[in-house]
Amino acid sequence: MAALIAGLAIFFAAHILAAGPARAALTGRLGEGGRKLFVTVFAFIGLGLIIWGKAIAPFSPVYDPPPAGRAIAMHAMPVAFVILAVTYVPGRLRRSLRHPMLLAILIWSGLHLLANGDAASILLFGSFALYVPASVWLAERRGYLPPVAGAWRWDAFAVLVGAVAYFAVFRFHGVLFGPVLAG
Questions:
Q1: What's the pTM?
Q2: What is the CB neighbour count within 10 angstroms for residue 43?
Q3: How many Cα atoms within 13 Å fall on the side-chain side of residue 130?
């Protein structure tokens, strides 16, 4: 599980450094674009290690997920994908949800904890679930202001994009992440 732990550490360190008190120092030293590039590069390195580390982690059961956990996760995950898509379009939902990406991550992690009870899954999805409140706190501390609400058509577009993304990930989950969800 060393690769998974290293990936999580790199991923979260990049985000926390770029959002916390070190943000001004990083921006001063690297510029706004350089800071964003720094976060992106290290986030992708961390993400790659997370995916690889989870794939090679030994299966060590900690708890038995509820019998309906997997079905609930598969049926509720489209909500997380739609909320994630809302993050990137200037609709009304983006403003209403305030932190849509973080909400999507919280739903994603919670549903995966409902469907998986092994140590690596608890570490992965539990880490992201714990990261969300910390990230919201850091954003609010910086004086985060949600964007101006846009047109409803963008929300409809986000629903479409989220649904398509969900079905693509559902279909290719085995290729991308290991466990096969669709035959």
A1: 0.88
A2: 17
A3: 8
Spatial contact of 83 and 162, defined as CB atoms under 8 Å apart: yes
Mean pLDDT value across residues 1-17 = 94
Q: Average model confidence (pLDDT) for the chain?
A: 91
φ/ψ region of 146 (left if φ > 0, alpha if ψ in -120 to 50, else beta) reads: beta
Q: Which residue has the tokens 């921006």?
A: 27
pLDDT of 94: 86
Contacts of 111 (CB under 8 A, 6+ apart): 72, 73, 76, 77, 80
The predicted-structure confidence for 107-151, as pLDDT tens digits, reads as follows 999 999 999 999 999 999 999 999 999 888 888 887 777 777 788
CA gap 123, 12 in Å, rounded = 13
Q: Give the span between the Cα atoms of 14 and 46, in whole angstroms.
A: 9
- Spell out a b/e string for 56-86, using b for 16 or more CB atoms within 10 Å of the CB, else e: ebeeeeeeebeeebbeebbeebbbbbbbbbb
Residue with tokens 């959002």: 19
Largest CA distance in the chain: 52
How many of the other CB atoms lie within 10 Å of CB of 91? Answer: 24
